[in-house]
Amino acid sequence: MEPLKHECGVAMVRLLKPLEYYQQKYGTWMYGLNKLYLMMEKQHNRGQEGAGMACVNLEAEPGNEYMFRERAEGANAITEIFGTVQKRFAEISKEQLADVEFARKNLPFAGELYMGHLRYSTTGKKGITYVHPFLRRNNWRAKNLCLCGNFNMTNIDEIFERLIGMGQSPRIYSDSYITLEYMGHRLDREVERNFVDAQKRGLKGRDITNYIDNNVKMGNVLKTTMPDFDGGYVMCGLTGSGEMFAMRDPWGIRPAFWYKNDEILVVASERPVLQTTFGLQCDDINELEPGCALVVNKKGEDSLERIIEQRGDSKCSFERIYFSRGSDRDIYQERKKLGEQLTGSILKAVDYDTEHTVFSFIPNTAEVAFYGMLGGFKRYLNDQKIERIQNMDHIPSKQELQEILHQYVRSEKVAWKDIKLRTFITEGNSRNDLASHVYDVTYGSLQPYVDNLVIIDDSIVRGTTLKESILKILDSLHPKKIVIVSSSPQIRYPDYYGIDMPRLEEFCVFRATVELLKESGKENLLEETYHKCKAELEKPKTEMQNAVRDLYRPFTVDEINNKMIEMLRPEGMKTPVELVFQSIEGLHTAIPNHKGDWYFTGNYPTPGGTRLVNQSFINYYESVYNR
After folding, report:
1. What was the pLDDT predicted at 417?
2. Among 271, 295, 312, which residue terminates a domain?
């Protein structure tokens, strides 16, 4: 119910024909630039804090710019960066704009390689300085590196120390800049290797430069950098000499898809983006495999390279539940399945009284799970109808059949997302009052004190919107009972791989568990867990265990649910409330190919995630008990 800031989006376009080809076939040499714009807009859900794009012109002569970059902040950043480019084009005549040679020599973003990025900050660091792509400049074309990604590294402190040990002094402490400098250092070595090879071959002057530009192997750079990183990532980059690459982490945490024909090679974070932009079918598109890189050299020759052996099968399940657009063929069916599987638990919660139950959803990401939930109840009612007819000891009359067959699942759009909280209002009471009105309801959509209200959402994280807005506004309809359904399991643990999940103490499930420990006389488990977490941090990182999991073991899901309701119930609310969560087993049944479930189970796929969750509890405990 609370919008989560989450992982970023990437888009890449490599034109495989000369610009003249696109001018002749599509009426514009800007084919690649236009497709990049569409791909970024189709992924706008992945970045509303900033956007950037870059381009490489392979034909630029010395003394002319050949790497272009534009960045902007804010929800309208995509429009702003492309608008800035188009303003430059508006200054010239139509004839000049259609002249490929003129464009190639005089216009920015006239090139063969394009890269775009949409940013959702996951570290709290804001400002244009942190908007991708990042650019490392050099007078050698091959040493210029432009980098962007959908990632969060959990061991950036280790990489920082390695850079210091090499004698470097990074200007900014962030995983993006440190990744850029680390990879840039190895790119320098790759260029220098080719320089020595060229000299051995007797080459001189520009011939050495041309040899380097044609023989740089990004696979070498990736193999000497990316195995050192712990985290979830899709890393994308361009070099000034025309190398392009996209690499996925060896656990498969973050997603990437690509497509190639004889005109283009393209990469995006989501499959439907490529389908819509290029008019493709699902099966036309390839998924980039964990630990692999898609590399395209200056000549436009592509290769799939195994950079790191696959280290796990931890494709993010929350990507499927919430973050990706539901228009993907498989994600749509998975979300429907998540809703359908909850039929039995919801029936129990409403005491099997489907006649007096209204079904709805929290807009907008839970809509597909809502359709699945309705489908489950329609099948349930049909089975009930068949059973009643089969059990009759006589041929039913028309009236009896009408009575049976006219039973149906009652669904309404009960909740409406009305406004966004105006952040310029800073006074506490004013902000709280506005927050309570983020949602509105459809009055008259159910019979007061008679109908149950079942309302589904994709996840319950902090519980703030439930307490401050949802429960209050739903209570105004006076349902007999409110059943809040989550299509995902209880979120118990932070994420460290690119999603802005809150600290442990901000999770309503964690807070409820702490209260249960106190009430049941088991508060000593908090101190025990604190010492266990500290002990885990002393172990080699590959041997660490998640000690925080011990806190949840004394209680059932229902016990934690009941405590959550007690804590989230607004003052003065009379309507009974029940929570229904997806089970872990149900999650994996609905989404069998995305096994990354650390948000729910605490089974982090990398040592860095385990280290950070232990540290998170230490930070919590010391802030509460060691003041």
Report:
1. 80
2. 312
